[in-house]
């Protein structure tokens, strides 16, 4: 077995004093020199950019570290660096340059950036490295160099995909620490959209993790079910069709239809460890997902609102839900902000950051807190959600356990969090042919889920047709599951009900996980934490009030969050129904709602205002 060492971009501009300096980038050089003779072949790479390179922020009249859309996908805009023949592009003087067998110069095409040692960022133009290694029967590679999170990472992903046994010496790599650079200027991006379309959703994994988990299960058990998803604005006073330009909305939706999984995204889903399990996503599902383009949509205006629907096979249509909501939420925000000046917007975001940071400071007083970001679907914007996640990381440290947003999880190297949603029992129930089948449908969902997942993914969501009735009739094996998610009604009542149910089934509640996730903010999180933290394993999914709390920051409640959902409304021609523990969240035809209440033995329910 021949073994090659790939030394990635140990150049002056990436070392201290360079234009894109990586913290302590020069400290890895002596270690790299020491191991060169342990390998059959040594290959160096160099960024080698022309001065007019499209990835330079200066050539796009944009801010460094902002992101634009290129024909090959999203592109980070960098400070000018490693310009051909410059001092910055030269290999560091301390690096042994006499031992290497080959130097690969990448990024020479002004229209395409290049991170990987194997391919340009268009994912098709080869650098020649694979051919060099193949001719010499190299089957194993070790990577070192700069920077871990970009060029080393992309090179390692390509090496794995090309079949090499791949090792990354993390001790001989250093990562870009964006906190030491200019942070993405949110106010500038909001104020100055330089492009004809500034895409809101730039990736199919800019979605909630549980959508992908559910999609895999649906792809296995119900791939041919035909469903319709529909936009439902519960906050009727927000007249979206009067705020949001239809042409702009169509451009955003059309852009989403053009998206497909990138190579890096696919590698992350295939190879990352989720909930302690590698290869969470099966190969047949990933092959389907890698070839997916989202189906068409139907859009029209009616009475000041948009009617937006998606029809087709369930695995395809379901993936519209989160990006559609994210687009509408962000376009509403842009509509409100479009007449504000740059200084006004800077002040607005400064106040919003202060407001969120004060929440974080309150929450970090809770010693054993476990909390995740659940805010993708109703976020103010992607950039704001990303900032909120960084604030949670910085302020809460290990109390922050991850994010539901797959793209942010991948980019920030944090845990992707999520289990399952009401969508599964809603569609399974709509497919039931008899009342007896209907009564069993929610449990069949979990039986199928049981076959797919174990451990912390075995979380019960009991409230689709009422928590009390669900637990009363639940099969005994469900009591052995890891925990429960509480997403409607009075959360303290639902938690007490679950605790008693576990006791009645001979289970120890202190070993069970309770996830609270319905409309939470700091006061309620603190109250629930103090009431239950010694009785169960408490966790929180913090959504809208994390990623979209601009209350009181602009006049007339212009940016206050509102209740917008995108739900499955029919399956194989049958209407879907959701009851929940809050009658104000019920949806479906009136006669079907009454039938479901009868079948699931739903009695009097306490109505709770729906704000998000």
Strand content: 15-25%
Looking across the biggest beta sheet, what order are the strands in? 14-13-18-17-16-15
Helical region count? Answer: 21
- Helical residues, percent: 25-40%
Task: Report mean pLDDT, rounded to a whole number.
Answer: 92
Runs in which pLDDT lies below 50 for 5 or more consecutive residues are 178-184
The structure class reads alpha/beta
Q: Termini separation (Å)?
A: 58 Å
Number of strands: 20
Radius of gyration: 26 Å
Oligomeric nature of the chains: single chain
What can be said about the biggest beta sheet? 6 strands, parallel
The rough form would be described as globular
Describe the protein.
- This protein has 21 helices and 20 strands.
- It has 612 residues and is of the alpha/beta class.
- The strands form five sheets. Strands 14-13-18-17-16-15 form a six-stranded parallel sheet.
- Strand 13, helix 13 (382-396) and strand 14 form a beta-alpha-beta unit.
- Helix 7 (246-257) runs antiparallel to helix 11 and helix 15 (423-430) crosses helix 16 (435-452).
- 43% of the residues are buried.
From the structure above, extract its key features.
612 residues; alpha/beta; six-stranded parallel β-sheet; five-stranded parallel β-sheet; 20 strands
Q: What's this model, at a glance?
A:
The protein has 21 helices and 20 strands. It is of the alpha/beta class. The strands form 5 sheets. Strands 14-13-18-17-16-15 form a 6-stranded parallel β-sheet. Strands 5-2-1-6-7 form a 5-stranded parallel β-sheet.
